[in-house]
């Protein structure tokens, strides 16, 4: 608009010049004048200010369970920024609040909310806690209106940050922040939040912006349309439901040695791991431990037994079934449909199934979770195999029994899907208790930095040796997979696959049938097993997910209204002076032209006719 206003006097000047110029005058000057207004009009269409920073941000998951909404329900963002240093009682309903993870104390949020209720009920004075806790209590637990929320995560949780040197002090700090982030995710995932919530990682650009915002907030100059400041903009369409999300299961076989003339089917041992994840931000849910470690262990066990079964002399009289299942976070829905696709006779041949879950971050103790009573002969036999091998390796395996409640749709462990079909199964895990829904399923805190390659190596050795002892009915200490043998665990192989999985988000509803990760898993399993097949199934209809998981946050530094008024005053003064100058100069130009024209005619008459023009 200002450019158009500035152009008006120039257009007026051009019109006056065109009306007063001589017929033979050059068109160059007039063309130049014609270009000036056009130049100003073009400037009106040009963005004169770039963003102060452009940051990759990751949206909080949006989903429904049986029609009940959870997560962040909005994606678009266009508000001024504020920090935790904003004055008490400030209206943040149209502000984007930036909170670094390091400044949070989530354990106090729930307690703070409960204390408020108790104090209100007993009419007691309530002692206020730190600003971060109060903010999270008001805007998450109490659902107070907020323009948007941006949570800054340390770079240690960024799978794209590359290798980082980690010291012992860093490990301690990472553990603290991991526990903090686990609590934060639990709070956010199970809340219905009516404003945009995004995650970003700490880096120089956004930290400089945050420091500036905090300084302004401390000085009482919070960003508003009146004061100016920083404005956060995320241009994103309204999230749409994902139509018919697919789960993909992958299986492969290592057939056992069947004696000639034997018409009976060989017994089967199934090794199973769920490979997909779920977390507060689907674009960041890599799940290095849950359950990347289980997938890595399954692939390495398949490689080891493929070497063992390649020689007829060492091929066991058991079929080995390897299953990479999907839908783990959703009550192991993929495992359920995978097992239902089996023929009844095939299910009856399964001697037992061992499911692998979160085996990459334990110290000296693993847990064998079962659904059948410990007194069951099959369960007792499995536990004795594992505990015996564990003792030889200097480890400890403890049996944990959890009875299945048939009326409860919640499936906490993958082996429970087998147990519901009367198939003996157990889950080997570093977790001592059953996780709740969407807990320990590949969260933001589950990064590769907190996973131990040595823990995975020891787990693989324990599982492979226990299965071998069952297949070959070994009683004494006869290590098949000794460290110095050709059947030793390949750490480079483990490291390669763990690195890949630690950099690959794999939330099932966002994976396609032809996803590169699915293709890579299928190809790798086909390298070591036979009859590799892929099964595509629809996710249970009770879960609904929405798109828009990643965006670009543009940060603009905007001027205050005072600046706009001063600019308007300056432009107005300029226009008045320019208009006055142009009016005066064009009138003087006209007078000079008319004066020169009359003098030229009079001189011509006197020269040739010796009479003034008025006498002719």
Secondary structure topology:
Blueprint: H1 2-20, H2 28-43, E1 53-59, E2 62-65, E3 68-72, E4 77-82, E5 95-100, H3 106-122, H4 131-141, E6 148-153, H5 168-189, E7 192-193, E8 197-201, H6 204-218, E9 229-234, E10 246-254, E11 268-274, H7 288-309, E12 319-325, H8 333-340, H9 344-349, E13 350-357, E14 365-370, H10 377-392, E15 396-401, H11 415-419, E16 425-429, H12 453-471, H13 491-501, H14 516-528, E17 530-538, E18 543-545, E19 550-558, H15 561-609
Parallel strand pairs: 3-7, 4-5, 5-6, 6-8, 11-12, 11-13, 13-16, 14-15
Antiparallel strand pairs: 1-8, 1-19, 2-3, 2-18, 4-9, 9-19, 10-12, 10-17, 14-16
Helix pairs in contact: 1-2, 1-15, 3-4, 7-12, 7-13, 7-14, 10-12, 12-13
Describe the structure.
The structure is a single chain. The protein is of the alpha/beta class and 616 residues long. The protein has helices spanning 2-20, 28-43, 106-122, 131-141, 168-189, 204-218, 288-309, 333-340, 344-349, 377-392, 415-419, 453-471, 491-501, 516-528, 561-609; strands at 53-59, 62-65, 68-72, 77-82, 95-100, 148-153, 192-193, 197-201, 229-234, 246-254, 268-274, 319-325, 350-357, 365-370, 396-401, 425-429, 530-538, 543-545, 550-558. The chain contains 15 helices and 19 strands.
Number of strands: 19
Q: Estimate percent helicity.
A: 40-55%
- Largest β sheet strand count, sense and barrel closure: 8 strands, mixed
Q: Runs with pLDDT <50, length 5+?
A: 41-49, 107-129
Termini Cα gap: 56 Å
What coarse outline follows from CA principal-axis ratios?
Answer: elongated
Percent in strands: 15-25%
Rg value: 37 Å
Mean pLDDT: 83
Strand order of the largest sheet: 15-14-16-13-11-12-10-17
Please count the helical segments.
Answer: 15
What would you call the structural class?
alpha/beta
Pfam family, one: Nicastrin
Protein name: Nicalin
Membrane topology: Single-pass membrane protein
Subcellular location: Endoplasmic reticulum membrane
